[in-house]
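Teaching assistant here, posting this on the class forum so everyone can see the example we discussed in section. The complex has two components, and the goal was to see what a joint structure prediction looks like when all of them are supplied at once.
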Amino acid sequence: MKIGVEVNNFFSRYGSRIGKMEIEIDQNTNVEKLLENLNIPKDKVGFVIVNQKRVDFDYVLSENDSVYITPYATGG
Amino acid sequence: MSKMIGKDFIRVLYIDLTSQKADIQERKDLYKYLGGAGVAAKLLEENMKKDVDPLHESQPLIISIGPLSTIFPVVTKAVATFVSPHTGEYGESHAGGRLAMAIRNAGYDAIVITGKAQKPTYLVVTDKNIEFKDARAMWGLDIEETGRVIREREPGPGKRSIIRIGKAGENLVTYSCVNVDTYRHFGRLGIGAVFGSKNLKAIMIMGEEDLPIASLKEYFKTYQEIYKKVTQTDAMAKYHELGTPMNIKVLNSINSLPTKNLLQSNFEYADDISGETFAEKNLVRKVSCVGCPIGCIHIGQFRREFDKGYEYESIAVSYDHELIYALGSLLGIKTTDEVLQIIDEVELAGLDAISTGVVLAWATEALKKGLISREDTLADLEFGNTMEYVKAIDNIAERVNEFYYTIGKGLKEAVKKYGGEEFALLYGGNEMAGYHTGYAFALGQTVGARHSHLDNAGYSYDQSAKELKDEEIIDYVINEEKERAVLTSLCICLFARKVYDRATILKALNVIGINWTNDDLTRLANDVFFTKLKIKKELGYSLENYKFPKRIFETPTMWGKMDEERLNRLLKMYIERVEKEYEDWSRGK
């Protein structure tokens, strides 16, 4: 099934795929698995937003979900 | 007299503008405060006048650096303290640039300025001399012009630091800033007005002192270890890449980006003013403070038409998360070029960006609600209307009418006259920073010594907590502020907080001959934390009967809408805990 993903530029230094993309995933793929597929280190992730809602790593993705993966905001 | 680094005294330069006299004292008794926020707070406590107006000429203005300043990576800040004309209580502000290096090379650890010059004056402070120079011709000039005139008149390019005020400071706007070397600022709490009240337009400072380090080999080894940590790990990389503007997209995605006076916590145009968009469209270079290899200062360029007939100029200003929030999303500004244009206006006038944005956002809503009129504002303030905000910024700096005179004292005063306190974004009397993340941020900015989000980083707790626990929030906010007191007493940039853990700090101190232990740092943290509270109390500060603005409860944070009762309960818990600790600390003195 297809989902839309956007990965914050922050993750480029870890060799992750970044930017906006449409990808194919298997049924019952959870967020943790998706991070693995995109080569995003779990411990650097601040938030995973699916359809404008924050979700946990065990959240199971559905067809046409829109996913945004981002680190925490930092002081400035 | 020995000025070797690691000495056991604080070398304080006292300048009296009234008598045009200077004095130098070597203060062994201040050594236990190390420098920066610790020494500057202590010098404020000694020199401030309790029942006198913050802008009275007898009030002091203090700038301090620390023992590690400039000689270790990212130890770049100078700390200023003063009685804040904005809140009426403790004033503290930090700035980078070349200032810390220049003070160090001039051979001082701290500078205390009192009195009022008879006519507009700029100071020249070097290792050889203190000069009081005529600034009458500069009075009324903006930040950029003032910098240019002093650069042309005075020697020392590359070594000197030039700090100055604009019209807002001259006109005593209580949220006017002091510009430091063009791209950095003593931003918050109105230090610009303190300069203005002293007829002090600028200070040029430089020195060519040779300050020897005792065990050079050990020092160099430690320096390199820290340098490697700074440059070769990911501890600080994000500050260089997109910089803090990275936050815009992040905060927007979690309902934490204050937008249109916090009527919203996400912005439909966030992607158009995100750090990514600034980088793609406007970023022209990144610069560093002296002694920092990071390059976190992002300079963005925009084109302005200054006359008809294809007359354009290109203008470069530094941008950061807080500026994009306060002068962007909070005002509903939709493009990066427009945000930069508003930043430029704020820069030239010499205003604090956060307070200016929050004041204008309030005024926009107050105008719409009919609390104020077009005759007051002289501009059609409306979210998204850049040119009208540009006009209003000049009006604030010039204090053109009664309305602008009043809002020139900040929202705390504005709502007394015009009402609208329920949508005045104030925390502890200071305008809100750009993180509507939840309880820890709201409590943190309210109780922080300088009412800055950086006092205790509540926004960080809000984001990383799995669930919000009241006791944990209180612990976090108190412990973080104490720990940051160590960093700011050493003038370490807070961006380097992950690099400078306690072990690293002790190593750096030890190699320059300051043989402190971990217990000494804990003692320092407590002393600085409670010294500031003592100052605040003496200046009449209290959070009893404090009321949060309604708006912060109406608009969802990343944790949903905050509950007013809960936040009030947290505040009460905080006060009880800190008061008890304060009593213990006072008894131990």
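For the discussion questions: Residues 2-70 of chain A form a domain with the Ubiquitin-like (UB roll) fold (CATH 3.10.20.30). The longest strand of chain A covers residues 2-7. Think about how each of these relates to the inputs above.
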